Amino acid sequence: MPNKTIYVSDDDLALYKRAQELAGNLSSAISIALRRYVEMEEGRQEGYDEITVRVGRGTGRKQRFSGVLLAEGGRSSKDGYEAFKVYRSRTGKFVLHADRRNQFKQQQSDPAYENGWRSWIGNWSSDQSWSMAQGEATLHVLETVEELRELIPDDLYALVEEAANQPAVEDLDI
Fold first, then answer.
1. How far apart are CA 72 and CA 90, in angstroms?
2. Rounded to an integer, what distance in angstroms lies between the CA atom of residue 105 and that of residue 47?
3. What share of the chain is helix, strand, coil (3-state, %, to 5)?
4. pTM (two decimals)
5. Which of 61, 83, 91, 106 is most buried when burial is the number of CB atoms within 10 A of its CB?
6. SS in 3 state form for 70-122?
7. Hey, which residues does 107 pair with through a beta bridge?
8. With contact defined as beta carbons under 8 Å apart, do 100 and 82 qualify?
9. 94 strand-pairing partners
10. What percentage of the chain exceeds 70 in pLDDT?
11. Residue 132, strand partner residues
């Protein structure tokens, strides 16, 4: 294996020592960092961004990938709100991030309260109940744009289908 000498400034010495502690050896730490840097920089030059999304319930956990946003949209219902973002990954796959915001349900035992807030004025019933669950976000990785059809609203699918045929970056000779 060839030897390479790396000169480290005094200001960065503590950083290199900590990297060596975490990785086991400095060579491994440098290779991991360089591999990630090259991967992300090549993607950036091709027009892709580093995308970080939250998945799971509540604050969940973060997942990261290289991609470009194709389209986004949402829909609301009486139970909550869903937001969708569709990306094309650097490897050509389609990535759907679906964020289902807080889900809220309210029940009234009196039918008069089912007509909206105006019917509540002057009347208050103690026979009410409500419940709320933290929203949940999911990430789906799909091979084809057609697989998205059943997962997102029709108008958003039309936008994704149109954008899927466009290059991430178009170089203009102007």
1. 18
2. 42
3. 35, 35, 30
4. 0.66
5. 83
6. EEEEEEEECCEEEEEEEEEECCCCEEEEEEECCEEEEEECCHHHHHCHHHHCC
7. 129
8. yes
9. 88, 142
10. 79
11. 104
